[in-house]
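Budget justification aside, the reviewers requested a transparent look at the raw inputs and outputs of the sequence design task funded under Objective 1. We therefore reproduce one unedited record. The lines immediately below are the structure tokens for a 333-residue chain.
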């Protein structure tokens, strides 16, 4: 069995060293990127994985799984879940944790992309799809109509597929946020990314803690029957008190599904890892978060912001089982 070191996903971040640690673990050393043994995954493979990769190449679709070198691509693709990145592969923002290319004026969106996405989903037989996006501050609506069109296309072609959208903040535009909220997706997600104190260090200046909370609050207000989801990354220098503040704030705006994962530095030009948080500490934080009233929490070193928590939560609901719980030990996108 071939084992690969974990690499970085698009939506993850790092922070300053101030204020104490949320979880005790090994600190990174300058010039050293040695990772602890729990950050190892199997090399991807399998018939379903290979078939999906061929189809996505054929239809010229981007996935966050590949763009961000997600460590769990084999598990998710092989299990019938994929995360497709809309609006191209160039972002208008320059967060210091993110490995996606950035430019002030990316190429214009491909108007045929929503159609190709719907075709891909219909042909692959996927059970659950996550649609994520690059930020497009150069577009009047931030790309909201494009994202909504992709969701509607999937629902027309494959109505049985469950859809999650993981969006940017659309510059705080209420009309854009509403357009995505009413697109038909079962899970509406937007990442808080990190605690309040670290926002300016970690994220682009156009992003922000309060704006992200407002997006999540409007998602829930616009479409109460949908489930809202957010993500925080650990190992950034955050304190436990700051994490608990974030839990309270996310619950206040109605977020039901939460993922907690380890930040990994994608390159030397990105923010360094402050600490590697061990699995047992993630398990304790998962239980702490559940105590604040989240319906479902997935926490672990390999958990990523497009993790299958939304899928697992919805399947438990559809099967009539209690939704309150945790994801277990499996990694996820």
């Amino acid at each position: 069995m071939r084992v690969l070191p974990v690499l970085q996903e698009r939506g993850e971040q790092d922070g300053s060293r101030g204020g104490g640690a949320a979880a005790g673990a090994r600190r990174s050393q300058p010039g050293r990127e040695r990772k602890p043994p729990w950050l190892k995954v199997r090399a991807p493979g399998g018939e379903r994985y290979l078939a999906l990769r061929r189809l996505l190449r054929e239809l010229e679709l981007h996935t966050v799984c590949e763009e961000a070198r997600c460590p769990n691509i084999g598990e998710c693709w092989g299990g019938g879940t994929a995360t497709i990145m809309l609006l191209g592969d160039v972002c208008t923002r320059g967060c210091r944790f993110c490995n996606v290319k950035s430019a002030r004026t990316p190429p214009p969106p491909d108007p045929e992309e929503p159609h190709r996405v719907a075709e891909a989903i219909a042909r692959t037989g996927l059970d659950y799809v996550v649609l994520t996006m690059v930020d497009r501050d150069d577009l009047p609506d931030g790309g909201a109509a494009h994202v909504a069109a992709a969701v509607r296309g999937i629902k027309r072609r494959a109505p049985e597929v469950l859809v999650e959208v993981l969006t940017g903040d659309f510059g705080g535009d209420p009309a854009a946020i509403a357009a995505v909220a009413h697109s038909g997706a079962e899970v509406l997600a937007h990442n808080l990314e990190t605690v309040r104190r670290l926002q300016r260090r970690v994220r682009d200046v156009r992003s922000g803690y309060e704006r992200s909370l407002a997006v999540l609050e409007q998602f829930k207000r616009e479409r109460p029957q949908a489930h809202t989801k957010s993500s925080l990354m650990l190992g950034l220098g955050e304190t436990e008190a700051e994490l608990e503040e974030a839990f309270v704030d996310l619950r206040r705006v109605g977020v039901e599904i939460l993922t907690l994962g380890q930040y990994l530095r994608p390159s030397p030009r990105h923010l360094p890892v402050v600490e590697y948080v061990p699995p047992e500490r993630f398990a304790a934080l998962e239980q702490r978060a559940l105590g604040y009233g989240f319906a479902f929490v997935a926490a672990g070193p390999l958990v990523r912001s497009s993790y299958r928590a939304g899928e697992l939560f919805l399947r438990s609901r559809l099967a009539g089982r209690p939704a309150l719980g945790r994801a277990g030990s499996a990694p996820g996108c």
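Confidence is low (pLDDT under 50) at residues 1-31, 323-333. The longest helix spans residues 144-157. Computational costs for records of this kind are itemized in the attached budget.
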